[in-house]
Automatic annotation (TrEMBL):
<feature type="domain" description="PAS">
    <location>
        <begin position="325"/>
        <end position="395"/>
    </location>
</feature>
<dbReference type="InterPro" id="IPR000700">
    <property type="entry name" value="PAS-assoc_C"/>
</dbReference>
<dbReference type="InterPro" id="IPR013656">
    <property type="entry name" value="PAS_4"/>
</dbReference>
<dbReference type="Pfam" id="PF08448">
    <property type="entry name" value="PAS_4"/>
</dbReference>
<dbReference type="InterPro" id="IPR054327">
    <property type="entry name" value="His-kinase-like_sensor"/>
</dbReference>
<dbReference type="InterPro" id="IPR043128">
    <property type="entry name" value="Rev_trsase/Diguanyl_cyclase"/>
</dbReference>
<dbReference type="InterPro" id="IPR035965">
    <property type="entry name" value="PAS-like_dom_sf"/>
</dbReference>
<dbReference type="Pfam" id="PF22588">
    <property type="entry name" value="dCache_1_like"/>
</dbReference>
<dbReference type="InterPro" id="IPR029787">
    <property type="entry name" value="Nucleotide_cyclase"/>
</dbReference>
<dbReference type="Pfam" id="PF00990">
    <property type="entry name" value="GGDEF"/>
</dbReference>
<dbReference type="InterPro" id="IPR000014">
    <property type="entry name" value="PAS"/>
</dbReference>
<feature type="domain" description="GGDEF">
    <location>
        <begin position="483"/>
        <end position="622"/>
    </location>
</feature>
<dbReference type="InterPro" id="IPR000160">
    <property type="entry name" value="GGDEF_dom"/>
</dbReference>
<dbReference type="InterPro" id="IPR050469">
    <property type="entry name" value="Diguanylate_Cyclase"/>
</dbReference>
<dbReference type="InterPro" id="IPR001610">
    <property type="entry name" value="PAC"/>
</dbReference>
<keyword id="KW-1133">Transmembrane helix</keyword>
<feature type="transmembrane region" description="Helical">
    <location>
        <begin position="291"/>
        <end position="309"/>
    </location>
</feature>
Amino acid sequence: MSATQRAGWSRLPLRAAAFVALTCATILGVSGWREWTARDAVLKDAELEMANVARSLTQHAEDSLDLLDSGVVGVVSRLEMDGTAPVTIAKLRILLDARKKAIARIHSLAIIDDQGNWLTSPGTIGATLSDGAFFRYHQLSPKREAHVGRPVKSLLDGEWVVTLSRRFSKQDGSFGGVVVATISSKYLSHFYEQFEIGRNSSVSLAHGDGLIVARIPSNETFVGRSVADKPLFREPSLQRPSGAYHFTSPLDGAERVSFFNRSNRFPLLLLATVDKDELLAPWRAAAISRMLYVLALVMLIAVIGGVLVRQLQRGQRMAVALAETEAHFRLLAEGSSDMVTRIGLDEQLRYVSPSSARVVGWRPNQLIGSPALAGVNPEDLPEVQAIVDAMKRGEREEARLTYRNQHRQNGEIWLESTMRVTRRDDGRVDGVVAISRDITEHKKLETRLETLAIEDSLTGLANRRRFDERLKEEWARAYRDRSSLGLLMIDVDHFKAYNDEYGHPAGDACLRLIAKIIAAEAQRASDLAARYGGEEFAMLLPNIDAAGCARVGERIRSAIHEAGLAHGSNPAAGCVTASLGGAVCRPAFERTAGVAALVEAADQALYAAKAAGRNRLLMSGEVMDLLPKASGQ
């Protein structure tokens, strides 16, 4: 042995001791870093959860105001058409009372003339609001769109409400008055109570000028209070549409993690928050426990480090040989853009190539020693596990499979892995080598192509191809279950004239609006709304009787009419309307009939509805006699 080699052997224990010390320090550092990363992950998850809550509740507020606005638009149209004669007001008062009783979120509806006189009775709203700013706004502004006012207090029942109002004009175009609807703060706060996001969490809805509209908890305490002087309304960096926001609450003094979302349609801001101390309490307890375990582990490593150093010389030659073999393997694996892993018989990762950081977001040192199948989607895990088990038993030499796997930053991705068994010199299986690549974009393209094949590009409804497929499937299911199958055919009245008068872009917008109305009635998973062709739509309603089918059709017809889309070439209504034909059958009792007969029956009912004057629904019968029934049935 040369002098250089002997010097190397003599320094080996010192180097090994230094390595043990460095390892202990690294473990402590990595553990601390992981705990801090876990803390950040908890905060990020909370921000994501608050973002989802904020967006959902903002959407709820917008939908609620849209619901109020739909009623206000109808009343404005009626007033501008019929004026404010006592007979008209009396009819509208009945309509407003009925709508208020039917829809819980509507607190009140009322009409005010151009002099500020309340044309509806105090029982509806009367002069019961402590702020008439909305009236002055419409009196001075010619704008026709809806105006959402600040929260005000109702003098009738003491509730805080938010107003949504529109002006109506006289026949000469001058200011005729205001139609106003309100939604109560109490309704909004009760709705927010359904979201359990933490013991000390809060949800606040504020007007654009900083007045609180609704809040949980303690809605009665905070509603109407101004927070306009707080950073969320004054700091330039927070004037974006949405974002995470860490702050100390000016209302209760708690440090909070939150997400704010500003409505892009109404002057509203939704702030969902969770108490930071409460949020981090589980992480803090777990982190202390884990760090105590790591400290114990580091101490154990330090104790046995000296013992291991003594064994180093004995395994030196074996380690050198193994290092040479591994070097060849790494040269190939680390030069590949695919992730190369070696899996032991205990299903732990023995080796991970550097490309793992790109493929799954984790560095090799973070993965080595962890379960190889830990990130596999639970739905795909049984199949992957079965293949790995078969390879460990030597029943399969290689396999190729596609599955979903967790990515550290990007959520879930799709991987394609090619696996091959490795064996010892004696032929026994000693592990599996897997080469994996990210095929997420390829999968997304496949999914998009599948969607395009069954979806109408203009309306987002099912296309004719998808409708025909589902009609055959539902017919066969109804035949097996001896249940009924309903079909509505819907055709837009005078649509060609609408296109000629307003242009094709307006025609496309009209079809999208009607498609949205029809889709809203497809409330069951089995219901299907489809664009049948041109301006004609179809709605498939499994397991429904004729009365139920007619109710759905009438709701669609009424909603299209109430949308109030102007149509000068439809003189009967003055707005866009639709004619509907419906048919219901029981395939088990029409064994000689087919799906075409059901479509024909609904079409005939549709033609009859058009012939009868349009803007109506006609049914062909509760159970169609498509063809003579089999004898004895």
